[in-house]
């Protein structure tokens, strides 16, 4: 399997280097801006600035790395390669497993970049900036998206997977907009609703703040909330298993 | 230089780097007041917590051993090892819960506000926190299981690796034991020497278990999962029946009782693992699970 991982890394090496270089450049830029803002802002606002910069950077990091993960599907869409790789040592499990492992490695790399940014911000602001639980949330979100996209992409082709992603985002946006206009949004915008909770989280978005917030949740809500990451891990595993079964069939949809 | 001499030298270099980092940076973290907040806190913390990993990487670099396959997972055909990596910490947590509840006289009643649902919710949340704990634990396991225990086994045999490795691992915890009363508090007779000795015993027990699943899976990922769960879910399960006041009181004299309970259970879990280790892996390293294979 490590051979397939290295193969994908080799094919995508330029993109990976360019993207990581871009992210590091953006990190330096945003941290310089944050350092300038810190000197201009009153002391009580500095926490919010630090958290804001860290969140902005982390969203950028995970967006860029997510697009990189999506491109993994395009690296070997050829029927002959598909047949050859499936017949090699390790078989389909190794080929498909390499894709899933590499996606996880890229997400983990995103986590590490964000944590590195936290350390730089901590040195700039002279206080601990640590949003690791938030970054883990982003890792799980991308893992969930990739679980869907990889299985559909490997079965029906990368183009189909991309179209599915776009359709999924548009569908969620349209349905969400319709619900926001005509549905009951009291639970969302009302007192003690999601909006209030989000505001609280943004104001206390360090690990201690997240833990305090979680401690205030009722037992049932906490249990349901904590099931989500485990469900995503299970979903990723199931997606891998289904992709293994569908991999050879997927070749029928390739252009070449 | 013979292979054994080279291994002994690499162990000495590893211990020197690991302990220097821990004993220089550890006290800065553990003597800081609660809620201490300074810019370099994270760097100092990472240097201390990741000292085994840093030492492993530097030693491998110095001795030109390479880094291939350091974190390579071997899931296929090793379900049993990963299953044990999850289930034994949970069993440990439940047994610990019974032992602590009995020894502190807390009684088996959910004392948290909200009763059983809040207690269950808290434990479920700690299972999420385990993912974060596993990332931090990489810093330890890469050093202990993926380097030290293997080298010790080559030089002193399997039993020697479990005992000596456990003692070294326990001694590495001296800064948090002395400065923040890790696991045993500070209010007990013979502080801190008794705590350090008990920590070594605990590490021998846990070391046997973690080394067993490391050998079963042929990868360091299984011990990382188990260690992460022990540090998060097991601790949370252990205090399930305790009231918040009692949990706060743990910082005082009762923490020593809790520490003793953890040590006793670590030994209870460690002994069968040690026996299995001896039965299965004493006569050389098997092709699939041996320490040599981990670097391929």
The biggest sheet of chain B, with number of strands, parallel, antiparallel or mixed sense and barrel status, is: none
The number of distinct β-strands of chain A equals 0
Average pLDDT for all residues of chain B: 85
The total tally of domains of chain A equals 1
Work out the largest interface and the residue count of each chain: A-B, 30 and 28 residues
Question: What is the global morphology of chain B?
Answer: globular
Average pLDDT metric of chain A? 83
Q: What level of helicity do the residues of chain A show?
A: over 70%
Account of the 3D structure:
The complex is a heterodimer of chains A (256) and B (296). By secondary structure, chain A is mainly alpha-helical. Chain A has one domain (2-174, 233-253). Chain A contains eleven helices and no strands. Chain A has helices at 2-11, 13-40, 46-71, 79-87, 91-125, 132-156, 158-182, 186-189, 194-203, 207-216, 219-250. In chain A, α2 runs parallel beside α5 (91-125) and α3 (46-71) packs antiparallel against α5. Chain A is globular and about 65 Å long. The mean pLDDT of chain A is 83. Chain B has 296 residues and is mainly alpha-helical. Chain B has one domain (68-295). In chain B, α7 (193-217) crosses α8 (221-238). The radius of gyration of chain B is 19 Å and the shape is globular.
């Amino acid at each position: 399997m490590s051979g397939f991982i290295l193969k994908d890394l080799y094919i995508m090496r330029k993109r990976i280097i360019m993207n990581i270089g871009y992210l590091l450049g953006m990190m330096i830029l945003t941290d310089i801006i944050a350092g300038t803002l810190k000197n201009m802002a009153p002391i009580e606002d500095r926490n919010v600035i630090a958290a804001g910069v860290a969140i902005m950077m982390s969203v950028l990091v995970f967006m860029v790395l997510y697009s990189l993960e999506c491109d993994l599907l395009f690296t070997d869409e050829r029927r002959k390669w598909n047949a050859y790789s499936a017949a090699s040592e390790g078989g389909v499990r190794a080929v498909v497993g390499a894709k899933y492992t590499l996606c996880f490695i890229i997400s983990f790399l995103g986590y590490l970049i964000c944590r590195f940014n936290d350390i730089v911000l901590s040195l700039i602001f002279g206080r601990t900036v640590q949003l690791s639980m938030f970054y883990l949330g982003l890792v799980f979100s991308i893992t969930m998206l990739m679980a869907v996209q990889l299985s559909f992409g490997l079965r029906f082709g990368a183009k189909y997977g991309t179209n599915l992603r776009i359709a999924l985002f548009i569908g969620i946006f349209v349905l969400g907009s319709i619900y926001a206009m005509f549905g009951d949004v009291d639970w969302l915008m009302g007192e003690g609703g999601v909006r209030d909770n989000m505001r609280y989280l943004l104001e206390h978005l360090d690990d201690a703040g997240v833990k305090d917030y979680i401690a205030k949740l009722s037992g049932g809500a906490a249990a349901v909330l904590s099931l989500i990451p485990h469900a995503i891990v299970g979903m990723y595993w199931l997606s891998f298993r289904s992709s293994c079964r569908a991999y050879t069939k997927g070749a029928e949809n390739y252009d070449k | 230089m013979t292979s054994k001499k080279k291994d002994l030298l690499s162990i000495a270099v590893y211990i020197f780097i690991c302990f220097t980092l821990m004993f220089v940076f550890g006290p800065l973290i553990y003597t800081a007041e609660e809620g201490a907040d300074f810019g370099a806190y994270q760097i100092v913390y990472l240097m201390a917590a990741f000292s085994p990993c840093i030492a492993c990487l530097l030693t491998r670099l110095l001795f030109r051993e390479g880094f291939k396959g350091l974190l390579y997972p071997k899931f296929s055909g090793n379900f049993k090892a990963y299953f044990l990596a999850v289930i034994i910490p949970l069993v440990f947590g439940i047994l610990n819960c019974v032992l602590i509840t009995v020894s502190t006289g807390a009684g088996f009643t959910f004392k948290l506000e909200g009763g059983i649902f809040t207690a269950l919710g808290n434990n479920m949340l700690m299972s999420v926190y385990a993912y974060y704990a596993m990332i931090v634990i990489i810093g330890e396991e890469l050093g202990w299981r993926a380097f030290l225990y293997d080298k010790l086994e080559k030089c002193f045999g399997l039993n020697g690796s479990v005992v000596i490795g456990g003692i070294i691992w326990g001694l590495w915890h001296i800064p948090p034991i002395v400065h923040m009363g890790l696991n045993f508090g500070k209010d007990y007779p013979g502080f801190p020497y008794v705590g350090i000795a008990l920590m070594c015993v605990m590490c021998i027990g846990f070391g046997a278990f973690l080394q067993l699943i490391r050998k079963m899976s042929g990868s360091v990922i299984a011990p990382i999962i188990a260690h992460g769960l022990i540090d998060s879910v097991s601790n949370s399960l252990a205090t399930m029946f305790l009231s918040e006041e009692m949990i706060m009181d743990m910082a005082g004299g009762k923490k020593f009782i809790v520490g003793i309970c953890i040590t006793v259970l670590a030994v209870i879990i460690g002994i069968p693992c040690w026996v299995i280790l001896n039965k299965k892996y004493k006569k050389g390293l098997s092709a699939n699970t041996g320490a040599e294979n981990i670097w391929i």
